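Students often ask why we bother encoding 3D structure as a string. The short answer is that it lets us treat folding as translation between two languages. Here is a chain of 389 residues written in the first language.
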Amino acid sequence: MGLTASLDIGSEKMVMALGSEERDVVRLTGIKILASQGMERGVVRDWEKVKTCVNSLMTELLKDREVEVMNVCLSGEVLYMGEYRVKVNLQKRVVEPGDLIRAGQRCREIAGNGREEELVDMIPVAYAVDRGELVADQLGRTGRELEVTYQVYKADAGYLSQMLRLFDGRGIGEVCFYPAVRAYGEALDAARAGNMALIDLGAMGINVVLFRDGLLEDEARLPLGVRTIDSDIMLAFGVNASQARKLKHEYGQAVRSACKNKKIQIPDTNLTLESRDLATVVQSRAEELLEGAGYLLQTWGYDRPEDKIVLTGGGSRLEGIDTLLCRLSGHSVERAVVRRIQTSREEVLRTPEYMVALGLLRCSDSENGEERPGIGKKLAAGLKGIFGI
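And here it is in the second language, the structure alphabet:
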């Protein structure tokens, strides 16, 4: 039974989780969170400050434990995405697991590693047999040729090398890098969830991801995040950043009509404001942010009311944000709950700030001996893993 650790370095929060794996079960051993330092819009700007934070988490969480793998989430700001399509002949005229492995090997050969970029991850997004219709469940289909389309993620080799140095001297067996979308899929068990849209309301940006039939179909990042609500509160009421953040967290509501009007004391002052005035400011910006995400889903053809939207990220804590999104989009909306992680503390699975770190623990699953691309990687997606492989 080996130990796997995970690290999600956000612009505002840094989360590290530790889990033990036995067969197909990952048991959460511990999880810690602290305020990020040295980060700006998901990119490391001060390596010494970030390393201090990472060391603090490891000292408290890992202690003297030997960790086999540290899975680290890379922000979309440092990843380069591209689409690759590969074809392999079916050896037995029926799609078997070995054909999927060979397709992955072919994609790695084509995408490869360059002098300046490293291949981080590959996610299959479409399958077709003999140029037929795209399918999600490809195993067992008969034909002569399998075509697989991959979403490929690369990152600057120098940046990855510096990331590796964050763990120098800590006895980590391997460090593996992943895009957030891989962690999303593992956390939500997307391979079994059917059609699902995920909206991650982050401080500095919003990630919108669409899964169809268990496969990743589309993803995008919007550059504005829920921190813009803080800025609006500052301008509207003449308060500082700390006061604005406290007002949002303690009294902010995304639906003004549901707000019972009362006097709210501005933190650290004797001044007050009307709760409905605060709700007006919050709802105005929240609508703008959600409409941008909703527009993306519409352009992707995700417009059936029965198809659900799942909310996560720190912004999903805002009271009424799910109700507002339901009104704007016409979809049913629910808060994200992490699956396939065992813990005695069920509230951890519903904590939005923990979702990526928990999903990363599942990314260490491996059911074959293939090596993953990139620096010090192992193949993290087994044949029963996420997205059909």
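Translate back mentally: The chain is about 30% helix and 30% strand. Keep this in mind for the problem set.
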